[in-house]
Specification:
By secondary structure, this protein is of the alpha+beta class. It is built from twelve helices and 20 strands.
């Protein structure tokens, strides 16, 4: 799996991200052709090599024509621009998701609705190019997984269309909910709303360099300021060795009597989010349906914990483990389907064994088996309960015997000698 890890020690902005992608090998010609496909005018792309505290980096900038006034755009306007461009469906969908997340943050800050938000700084053609260009660049470089370090936002105040605002700007602070960050001691806006929206939408996790990640190339995208530290976004591109093979799902043919060998797997560190809410006034029968909806929406795990609340009221704590990118969708399901009026969230790190599914043969029929491994060593072999139960019911054989045989059939043969 081709992956990218961003080191955000100097924050992140849209042009820094795009500069890093260009530095990593994104074709300038391809980017210019993509930008030309977007509706809009009154700008010029500036791409240059610069030095930031001795580090060579690529600086990308959209220079606006001062004589051509940019129109004020809302979310619908921008989505129409994206849809009208000759882009892949993946680029269109992800670009639209970034702008939708931006609109949701702005709407919450200003106490209004998404359809009434008029973008100011992030509605200009420069921000549109930064966002769509970044999504395009990730696709062009074949990046399947994106993760980032905790962010440095900077401190102080920044001039915006609404006046002087604290750093991080209100919309940025809203976008950074659930993402680890700190201010640092640099009095600049290091994380822009555009940069925050890109990471909040596209990142699979935040934290240390993922376990098992092997870097193959390092690239740098430059910011516009000269700071006491290198004002760059560092992007490392690499692979998760063995991961692509481990997610394959080999199936044995009817005449095979031995399972395929268990391939090497490596544990991976994943940055995830946990959503939690305490509920004491909801019919417990609906929880099964809520859990099903959450799983279908992409939750990695959902569980209930019995708790005792004030005045000795019995209640359930509902917890959801999921990728950060699904936060809004999963929160919406919880609010819609339960009686809760508030949801807590916090970032977590999970070390996950490599997992795959195989089909093994037993004397009574085929059974799916889930196999987990750490560094090439099998740590868990779990036959699918529903498959085993069905075979037990149709054959009259003890369920535990079918489970035992299916498990044994999935294990690798003992070493010889």
């Amino acid at each position: 799996m081709r992956a990218m890890y961003l080191s955000c020690f100097a924050g992140v902005s849209g042009n820094m991200f795009l500069g890093a992608l260009l530095d990593a090998g994104l074709s300038e010609e391809a980017l210019r052709e993509m930008v030309a496909a977007l509706p809009g005018s009154g700008y010029e792309l500036k791409i240059s090599k610069v030095q930031k505290c001795g580090i060579a980096a690529t600086h990308f900038d959209v220079e606006l024509d001062p004589d051509e006034k940019q129109p004020q755009r809302n979310l619908a306007d921008i989505l129409k621009m994206i849809e009208a461009a000759e882009l892949s469906e993946n680029v269109k969908a992800k670009s639209a998701a970034v702008f939708t997340k931006l609109a949701e943050a702005e709407a919450k800050v200003h106490g209004t609705t998404v359809d009434k938000i008029h973008f100011h700084e992030v509605g200009g053609v420069d921000a549109i190019i930064d966002i769509v260009g970044t999504v395009f660049g990730l696709e062009a470089l074949g990046i399947e997984k994106l993760s980032a370090s905790p962010l440095k936002t900077g401190t102080g105040f920044v001039e915006c269309a609404h006046g002087k605002l604290p750093v991080p700007a209100p919309a940025t602070a809203e976008l950074l909910q659930g993402i680890p960050y700190s201010h640092g001691d640099i009095e600049k806006e290091l994380v822009t709303p555009t940069g925050a929206a890109l990471l909040a939408t596209l990142c699979d996790g935040f934290g240390d360099l993922p376990a098992g990640f092997v870097s193959e190339k390092t690239a740098y995208g430059a910011g516009g300021w000269d700071l006491d530290i290198p004002n760059v976004l560092r992007a490392q591109i690499g692979q998760f060795p063995g991961r692509a093979s481990c997610i394959q799902e080999p199936v044995l043919s009817e005449d095979e009597d031995t399972p395929s060998r268990i391939r090497e797997g490596r544990p991976t560190m994943q940055g995830l989010i946990v959503l939690e809410t305490n509920i004491d006034d909801c019919n417990p029968q609906i929880f099964e349906y809520v859990m099903e909806r959450l799983f279908k929406a992409g939750a990695l795990d959902v569980w209930q914990t019995p708790i005792l609340m004030k005045k000795s009221r019995f209640a359930s704590k509902v917890s959801v483990l999921a990728p950060f990118s699904l936060k809004n969708e999963l929160e919406t399901i919880i609010f819609e389907e339960t009686t809760t009026i508030g949801i807590r969230r916090y970032s977590v790190q999970r070390t996950a064994a490599e997992r795959r599914e195989e089909m093994v043969n037993t004397p009574w029929g085929s059974v799916r088996v889930k196999i987990s491994s750490i560094n090439g060593t099998v740590c868990s072999v779990t036959p699918e309960y529903d498959d085993c139960r069905q075979l037990a019911e149709t054959s009259g054989t003890l369920l535990k015997e079918i489970i035992r045989i299916a498990q044994a059939s999935a294990l690798p043969p003992p070493a010889v000698g």
